[in-house]
Amino acid sequence: PEAYETITVERKGRAALLTLNRPQALNALNLQVMEDVVAAVEALDRDPGCGCIVITGSAKAFAAGADIKEMHPQGYLDMYLSDWFTAWDRLGQARTPTVAAVSGYALGGGCELAMLCDILIAADTAVFGQPEIKLGVIPGIGGSQRLTRAIGKAKAMDLCLTGRTMDAAEAERAGLVSRVVPADELLGEALAVAGTVAAMSLPTAMMAKEAVGRAFETTLAEGVRFERRLFHAVFATADQKEGMSAFIDKRPPDFHHR
Ligand code: CO8
Question: Is residue 168 annotated as a catalytic residue, yes or no?
Answer without folding.
Answer: no
